[in-house]
Amino acid sequence: MNKITMLSFENITHSIDSWLYATFSPTIALLLESLIVGLAVIGLFTLLGLILVLMERKVSAYMQIRLGPNRVGYGGSMQTVADTLKLAMKEGLTPDGADKFLFNLAPFVVIVVAMMILAPLAFAKGTQIWDLNIGVLYISAVSSLSVIGILMAGWASNNKYSLLGAMRSGAQIVSYELSAGISVISIVVLTGSLRISDIIASQQDGWWLFKGHIPAIISFIIFIIAVTAETNRAPFDLAEAESELTAGFHTEYSGMKFALFFLAEYVNIFIVCAIAATLFLGGWMPLHIGHWVEFNRVMDYIPSSLWFIGKTFFLIFVIMWFRWTFPRLRIDQLLKLEWKYLLPISLVNLLLMTLIAIEGWYF
Amino acid sequence: MTKEELKVTLEQLLPSPAFEEGAEWTTVVIDPAGWEGTARKLRSAEGLKFDYLFCVTAIDWKTHITMVYHLTSTVYRHTVVVKATLDRANPVIGTVSDIWRTAEFHEREAFDLFGVEFKGHPDLRRLFLTDDWKGWPLRKDYEDPVNMIKL
Amino acid sequence: MIEEVGTTETGDLVINVGPQHPSTHGVLHLVITLNGETIKKVEPHLGYIHRSIEKMCESLSYRQFIYVTSRMDYLSSHINNHGCALCVEKGMQIEVPARARVIRVLMDELTRLASHQLWWGAMAMDIGALTPFFHAFREREAINDIMEETCGARLTMNYMVPGGVMADLHPNFQKRVIEFIRFFRTKIDEYDELVTGNIIFKSRMQGVGYLSPEDAVSYGCTGPTARGSGVSCDIRKLYPYEVYGQLDFQEVTATGGDCFARYKVRMQEMRQSISIIEQLIDNIPKGEFQAKTKAVLKLPKGEFYSRVETARGEFGVYIISEGGTTPYRIKFRSPGFSNLSALDHMARGHKIGDLVAIMGTLDLVIPDIDR
């Protein structure tokens, strides 16, 4: 028992926290803690970028009957490092006539938004940067800000087709945010709280996907479709992959700025999968089934961080699977899907969920 | 219709046609001046209904240029070959791109490579070569010291 | 690759697409007039790969000119060569032995399968599904390996000669083809399920690019482009050559007239090709693989036309001979040339995203058009 509790992050974060507050004055301790957290987030970003890009390339390769990167490092593991080095050494061109301030600002807006969303997420038991009482609302609100970064990039490029691509992308993201938001609300209705730790705690006796049965499953499916569209992934990637006819919003970017956009896209995928895992699959909560005490105790042996990572990466794999299986939707089909199908279904589903929550018809 | 029946029908239909013997299909040589009217008759006449123009060729015979049109009917499955002899110095013939839409591209090709002018063509420009190319490359007297190698 | 060429008086946008494409169509330059997202006019600009093959053939002998045609429609190289060989044989009244005829048909059908596989992979890639491309190329590799053993080359297989084929089949040929067919039969149903049944794919292809049967004939379209509109024009059935008259296969037509119909026609054609190969592979007659002909061929004075069914449509070879050792004039009637002329008619009124789907179903190979 002792060995296992030592492995949990909760102890590490707790001990660092108490040591800091014991040694320094509260202000300095807070500052130092913020510094440590900031460095940890940047470190996490880098690590995630490395892992996810490689994962995408390997997953796509195995689905396409080929091997993917396997030369650089053991089994191709250092491939992303090599790519990042290459991008860092590239010449960062700014197009003539581009709005310099906005052009340089856009990638940073996108990255900062991604970093901010990491704040309320719980990675393991006790490992949460900021457990604010409106956690879910904060995530929804901040993720909307990324549209500004995209529009900035399209506008500041001084390229008609970048602007068209950015506007299409923006329209797509804003539309699908509605369905995603309503799916999130349907879980909040069940939990009765916007706080992330409350939502996870309410899944102590089973994940909402199973407890909430039919409406929760519908919410989950709509959420996954909506976030695939929000992160501009296939099959909704027409703004960037239809580059034969309309250039995407980040065409004029090269070198490190492009690397930031690229990184932000992959970290966004991680974030939305983490949110889906938290809301529907219990976050770091192990799989518990009601009051089967013995089963629950066995499940508890597996550390919570592993549960979280397992669920998130499974959802990331599913989203990557979509990309390499489905063809692309046209822009009018894309928007029709959202406004005519997903939004009405999610509204009806929300009503259904509220009815179930009031009557108590869930597990 | 068979070759002989076609020959008989065409003799009645067209003004003074001449026939070439010994070819695989009925071959009729017409006067280029009346080509448009003849083409319309071939397209719509009962029993003929040549609706599919599958090959338009221009041949440079050094003294004259011949236009060859291969027509077939998807209804009766018979084929006819229409030839028209044009003056080499000023090859002009009427267009058939309003009767068979495929002729639009084929006639542009003939113009591009042989210099045959098609009266009434909606958009007679060079097709393969650049717009400022001088000369008609597929003619037998075309000289190009840079690109052509004489063995 | 996208440059605005200008605006017309009515405020329409004129843009260039190509000549370099991310898709595998070749060097096709389209000048598109757009009103917002809707296409008003598509004008192809050709000639980027014009090599004046017809003029070149006037100085090549009757044995040499056959192989230039492999470079025209490189995906149906056997079938193009076959058409030329047939024309020369028609002119010189050469009788091709039975074994050579069957070998030629086998090679033709294998080439048709390979060409349709590449078309399928490239079409799926254009629509956005990136994985079928790799599956298609895996099958193509198998066919290319079989061809390489017998013919010595993987793309431009100069195998047909007037009178038969250049060399006899490799001893492994029969075994490998039977194995390949067995494997491929299972795969083609899988592909149908993966791509054809996909709802996103269907919604991008159905109702897009309608071509009526009258227009198909008027524009001179042949092959699956016309058969998708219900026009019956399979040369193998209408004017049978070699052993096609004795084989049991169907001409595949569809009545939809849209992209999805043309797509389904090609998928069915692959199945028909498999059935043809299965009928022939066990009964290749023994005998000569090449008729005895003189080393230097001279066609008599006159004109000769022969036609074959390539993967794209009717390929016609029209030789005008003055009795010499080289042809006086050769005209190649290429299927892509006429199919392309229908693109403008089909694409009007559609969105840009649909243009990619329409071009995919036309199955254009630009060297075939430009010659």
Explain how this protein is built.
The complex is a heterotrimer of chains A (363), B (151) and C (371). Chain A has 363 residues and is an all-alpha fold. Residues 1-6 of chain A have low confidence and may be disordered. The longest helix of chain A has 38 residues, at 26-63. In chain A, helix 7 (146-156) runs antiparallel to helix 8 (160-191) and helix 11 runs antiparallel to helix 16 (331-359). Chain A has one domain (2-9, 91-359). The two termini of chain A are 31 Å apart. In chain A, strands 1-2 form a two-stranded antiparallel sheet. Helices cover 71% and strands 1% of the residues of chain A. The longest helix of chain B has 12 residues, at 103-114. Chain B is elongated, with a radius of gyration of 16 Å. In chain B, the strands form 2 sheets. Chain B has a 5-stranded mixed beta sheet, covered by helices on one side. A two-stranded parallel sheet of chain B has the order 6-7. Chain B has 151 residues and is an alpha/beta fold. Chain B is built from 3 helices and 7 strands. Chain B has a single domain (3-119), classed as NADH:ubiquinone oxidoreductase Nqo5 subunit (Beta Polymerase, domain 2, 2-Layer Sandwich). In chain C, strand 5 (160-161) and strand 6 (164-165) form a beta hairpin. Helix content of chain C is 46%, strand content 13%. Chain C has a single domain, classed as Cytochrome-c3 Hydrogenase, chain B, CATH 1.10.645. Chain C has a 4-stranded antiparallel beta sheet. Chain C has a 3-stranded antiparallel beta sheet with strand order 7-8-9. Chain C has a two-stranded antiparallel sheet with strand order 5-6. Chain C has 15 helices and 9 strands. Chains B and C meet through strand 3 and helix 3 of B and helix 8, strand 7, strand 8, strand 9 and helix 12 of C.
